[in-house]
């Protein structure tokens, strides 16, 4: 059987699938040509990340499709329920990229509190002529230790983020409609560990109490953070979104940044991907990455081998 990994798959995933008797195709097929390619090449499995969409039209057009796989967590680019109603298995890898995304959250947090995103823009331009001026401009850094991190969504990625925050000496609070409390185990290199319980509280209280806020939620019908929510946050709050675009009102966020209500934002995802608004891209108070939360070699290896394992289990 043939597997089309249209958004790529790790070498370890390819080897595992080939060992299981599958032929893996990594040719990048344009969105509008996916259905034709699947049918013409008798593809049984389509694997995607966030770029390729598998909607009703492709599902209807490809009667031979047996599995749709998402390398990652969110499956908002797949019509999951419809696919299942047609007898197609839909799989993903929710645990494989948690640490990678959590580390990116802290990359944005560290960047924001020490102005790295802005200094990295200005040092090449003014470092040799205005060194003392830049030194003064970036002199008011903030330590994360001792501060309160508010996590919205305390699932796998939220928990991985909590572990890193606890390791830094931060206080962690969380809001989650589905998880009332969770035991978070922080493990150290020498085999020792500590476990603490995080009890979910109201979203409003998290917004009011947190020095920094990070979002770990699926795609929503509306905004989780808009003008109303920004108004109740602490002055000088930092906000990071490495979850899904569209959960923050970007217009309201820019206004809050401009008036100093929000000290900085870190964004890996955007309302209008893959063409984010220029008001976001050009704002010197925003640390920016192009939706790369799970884009580490280690995570992609785990994603590839986990997808392969699920596919072999279902079709062998």
UniProtKB/TrEMBL annotation:
Name used for this protein in its record: 3-phosphoglycerate dehydrogenase
Gene source species: Flavobacterium sandaracinum
Pfam families: 2-Hacid_dh, 2-Hacid_dh_C
Lineage: Bacteria, Pseudomonadati, Bacteroidota, Flavobacteriia, Flavobacteriales
GO molecular function, one term: oxidoreductase activity, acting on the CH-OH group of donors, NAD or NADP as acceptor
Alphabetically ordered keywords of this record: NAD, Oxidoreductase
CDD domains: PGDH_2
Domain D-isomer specific 2-hydroxyacid dehydrogenase NAD-binding stretches: 107-293
Ranges where the D-isomer specific 2-hydroxyacid dehydrogenase catalytic domain occurs: 8-314
Family, per entry: Belongs to the D-isomer specific 2-hydroxyacid dehydrogenase family.
Origin: domain of life: Bacteria
């Amino acid at each position: 059987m043939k597997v089309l990994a249209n958004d790529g798959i790790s070498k370890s995933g390819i080897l595992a699938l080939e060992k299981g008797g599958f032929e893996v195709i990594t040719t990048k097929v344009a969105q509008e040509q996916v259905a034709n390619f699947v049918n013409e090449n008798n593809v049984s499995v389509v694997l995607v990340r966030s770029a390729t969409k598998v909607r009703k039209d492709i599902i209807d057009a490809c009667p031979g499709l047996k599995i749709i796989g998402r390398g990652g967590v969110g499956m908002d680019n797949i019509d999951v329920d419809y696919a299942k109603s047609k007898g197609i298995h839909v799989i993903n890898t929710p645990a494989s990229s948690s640490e990678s995304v959590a580390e990116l959250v802290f990359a944005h947090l560290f960047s924001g509190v020490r102005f790295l995103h802005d200094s990295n823009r200005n040092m090449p331009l003014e470092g040799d002529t205005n060194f003392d001026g830049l030194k003064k401009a970036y002199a008011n850094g903030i330590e994360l230790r001792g501060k309160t991190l508010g996590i919205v969504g305390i699932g796998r990625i939220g928990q991985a983020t909590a572990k890193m925050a606890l390791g830094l000496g931060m206080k962690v609070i969380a809001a989650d409609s589905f998880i009332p409390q969770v035991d978070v185990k922080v493990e150290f290199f020498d085999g020792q560990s500590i476990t603490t319980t995080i009890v979910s509280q109201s979203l409003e209280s998290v917004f009011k109490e947190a020095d920094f806020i990070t979002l770990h939620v699926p795609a929503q019908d509306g905004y989780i953070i808009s003008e109303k929510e920004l108004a109740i946050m602490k002055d000088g709050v930092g906000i990071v979104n490495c979850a899904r675009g569209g959960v923050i009102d970007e217009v309201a966020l820019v206004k809050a940044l401009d008036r100093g209500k929000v000290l900085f934002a870190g964004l890996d995802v955007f309302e209008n991907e893959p063409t984010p608004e220029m008001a976001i891209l050009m704002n010197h108070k925003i640390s920016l990455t192009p939706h790369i939360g799970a884009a580490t070699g280690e995570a992609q290896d785990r994603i590839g081998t986990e997808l392969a394992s699920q596919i072999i289990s279902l079709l062998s």
